[in-house]
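Here is the promised in-class demo. Please do not try to memorize the tokens; focus on the logic of going from shape to residues.
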């Protein structure tokens, strides 16, 4: 991605390159005309923020940004609402002022991600996905302030600067964390079922190599996941016996029961000779 890419200057240059010449003066009348043209083209508000951005973009376009008179003009008018950093990577705006074309140019045609209040991210790779996310966000939180920085890692590039949105995001994060902690306390990630199945395979096939045991383990799990019909009496008896012993219902247990039904493995422990 190009360093120090200024989307506003780029749009001005692209749209006005045939009309602008080096003798253009940065007066209010000219800026108003440019602001009107951009406003109509990109369907955004013709406000002080836009005019301040155009003022900077035109100065850069004409290489007049070192003019002390222009510099004082930019710094001296608070009504222009020129955001700090507007001419570098950071883009600050109201959500309603942003459209897909502007963002697509800002991210150099690459897809980007917009945040959801549940601490997830919405992948934006088309105008329809952008409008869908934008409409939903504005319906729940209004015309929020946003800050975008394409120099950050992808999941931190797009931020919503709204207290209610951030509070909801934090609440979702806490709830997900609590749910995950509870799951970790009550689950051992299915290790018991895997260990029991490996034991089951070894008892019925003591000659199996490690690779054969791994393949059999995969087959048993697949059989359990695909189980639709009722188990045979022997298989159902084996399944009930294992659950009575404390084993949880799982694909591995169902798969072993299918093996018992097929007569490929015994549901009874083999006695040592």
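The designed amino acids, position by position:
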């Amino acid at each position: 991605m190009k360093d120090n890419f200024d989307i506003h200057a780029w749009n001005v240059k692209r749209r006005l390159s045939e009309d602008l010449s080096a003798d253009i003066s940065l007066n209010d009348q000219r800026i108003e005309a440019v602001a009107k043209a951009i406003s109509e083209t990109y369907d955004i508000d013709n406000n002080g923020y836009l005019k301040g951005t155009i003022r900077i973009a035109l100065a850069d376009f004409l290489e007049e940004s070192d003019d002390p008179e222009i510099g004082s003009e930019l710094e001296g008018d608070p009504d222009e609402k020129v955001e700090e950093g507007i001419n570098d990577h950071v883009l600050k705006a109201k959500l309603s002022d942003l459209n897909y074309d502007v963002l697509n140019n800002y991210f150099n045609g690459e897809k980007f991600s917009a945040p959801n209040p549940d601490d997830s991210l919405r992948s934006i790779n088309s105008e329809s996905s952008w409008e869908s996310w934008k409409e939903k966000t504005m319906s729940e939180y209004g015309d929020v302030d946003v800050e975008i920085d394409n120099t950050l890692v992808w999941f931190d590039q797009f931020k919503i600067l709204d207290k209610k949105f951030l509070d909801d995001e934090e609440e979702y994060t806490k709830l997900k964390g609590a749910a995950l902690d509870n799951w970790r306390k009550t689950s051992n990630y299915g290790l018991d079922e895997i260990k029991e199945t490996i034991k089951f395979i070894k008892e019925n096939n003591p000659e199996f190599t490690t690779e054969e045991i791994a393949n059999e383990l995969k087959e048993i799990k697949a059989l359990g996941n695909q189980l639709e019909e009722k188990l045979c009496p022997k298989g159902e008896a084996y399944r009930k016996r294992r659950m009575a012993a404390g084993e949880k219902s799982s694909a591995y247990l169902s798969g072993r029961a299918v093996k018992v039904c097929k007569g490929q493995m015994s549901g009874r422990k083999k006695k040592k000779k």
